[in-house]
Amino acid sequence: MGDLRGIFFDQDGVIIDTEKDGHRVAFNEAFKAFGYDFLWDVEHYHRLLQIAGGKERMRHYFEEKGSFEELTEDERNEFIKELHKKKTEIFISLIASGKLPLRTGIKRIMKEAMEEGLKLGVCTTANERSASAIANGLLKDIRFEFVLAGDVVKKKKPDPEIYLLGLEKSGLDPRQCIVVEDSRNGILAAKAAGLRVVATTNVYTEREDLSDADIILTSLGDPDDEKGVLKKGDNEILQFDGVLHVDQLIRYFSN
User: Which residues are catalytic?
Assistant: First the structure.
């Protein structure tokens, strides 16, 4: 088993708790801008989150409603593309406004990882523009080896393709890396790529089956802010007291 040399992060729900008050709001504003009067409420959006990818969620929803029956496949693709483009513009404006702050502890643990010389990467199904806005804005002082987003891979999580690409970009062996995820689909993707997983839960994913993760926390925690609760993991090795540090992860995953 190799020493820990890299950490890959999912974005939505891990770096920023984006789903409930970010993506969901942006989807609804985009629908309104296109003349629709329906909304995705919190519970319905939770069900749609089981489908990876924003364009895929919209396609599923409109096909389920029967809204695409008169459209050709090319017309469907163009409609989804334009609607998702509008949604992305709204979402990026939410990020720029500061209404979607970073999750507790995420920037701290990234900085700790940099100090330890670990390679950092982002592996997300989120749109490339939103991923870039976060990586080059809120996290501009974090040195990422790569940011993989959007349609950079053909298959979305739970398929392991994006994490396999991350391994290729980093040049590391799966046993030298861990992933920080928040959802069952993300955990399954990471595990299928041979990676170990730390899961941080949120309002949506705390109800999912995350048991395949090696460690489950409610939050990474910060000394002067929210403290996390350990839901799964060997605390004799981890020694978690509400705040997770990189040296604890190095020790934990070197055993």
Answer: 10, 12
